[in-house]
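Minutes, project check-in
Item: structure for the 117-residue chain
Input as provided by the requester:
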Amino acid sequence: MMRETNIAARRSSQPYAGKAQAIENLGGSPALYEKHLARFKKNYAHAYVSIQEYLDTDHKKEAQRFAHSIKGLAGMLGLTYLARSAEALEMALGSNAKDLSAELSVFQERLEEIVEH
């Protein structure tokens, strides 16, 4: 995995890249999609903080499971870039990588993109 270091480069131009497919998967209902997206934003706005707390308290497996859950939910909602960053974080957590700063930073940026829009 190529590590992204430039914050501007990390900002995706289309945080909702898979939205059309997600709406189709939800029976073609934009209203249902928006309902699920709003719930995701409400429930996971502080996911980065939660993962950081898991890591600070030496609960790496819980952090990995949480990243896995976010990956799945983000994928279902067509939040492609967030799902990819959650997957990268999940994999790094599973590999016992010592330095997770790049994966955590990208995950935080992607999450903020979704929550802020």
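Outcome recorded: Residues 16-116 form a domain with the Four Helix Bundle (Hemerythrin (Met), subunit A) fold (CATH 1.20.120).
No further action items on this chain.
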